[in-house]
Amino acid sequence: MPFVPSYAVLVAMQAALVLAPGRPRRLWSSRVLGLAIPAAALVVGVVLAQVSGGASFLAALAAFATPALAAAAGWARSWPLPWLPAAAVPPLYALAWLRPDALDGEAAGMVLIAGACLAVTGIVGSLAPRSWLVAGLVLLVVLDCVLVWGDRQVEPTMNALQAAAPPTIGRQLPSLQQIDFGDATMGWLDFAAPALLGLLVVRRVAAALATGLAAGAWGLLLLATSPIAATPPVLAGLVAGRSVLGSRELSRLRFVGAGAGRRAVRQ
Fold it and tell me: Which residues share a beta bridge with 168?
């Protein structure tokens, strides 16, 4: 599939992740975790991909962990029928495994990663106050921009991650370390950021529309440069969806600033 419709599908999935309902269980309440976890996920992922054998390790980890996390999305988000995602995982995984080069196989992999991101953000949302998760999300976007446009090692690192082969069990397991659809590619955090955003706003529809429109416009940067950070559009969603924070809490977060995030690649 050509780049423009491929990228449009990924953008639509980002918007859909904002819409996904969720009511995380309150397991813990740590401000430090709320601020650190989103940014740490980005930094740790980049560092692991840069070390020798790191890309292959992440590819193997994603091949096994993604379906398990996707199956737990209903539980992590406190959905009324938590077993539904678990029931959908086996056929999706089989499709991604047996048809890795077909659009339906790529779509299945994309949905599995989206489900895994819903689960991970649901768990993260249960560990920290929402106000500090907002700060963590903004910090993630800032660091993403800094790494994508400020570190020349990020592009070859992400290319190595994309090319890494997962283990073989009869045949090679599906590549789930990045989201590949048609001629467009995004990273896990490009889906995790909007999934987390959906837990932080009160007007999810407005936030989803703003995120989708901003992401579509942001993608025009790919005409001039590639890769680009692909998480900045969630900031538009954060504003449009009206964060659950009050003005006092928002002023507490100004030190974080507003920047931009992960990556999208035109192949």
Answer: 172
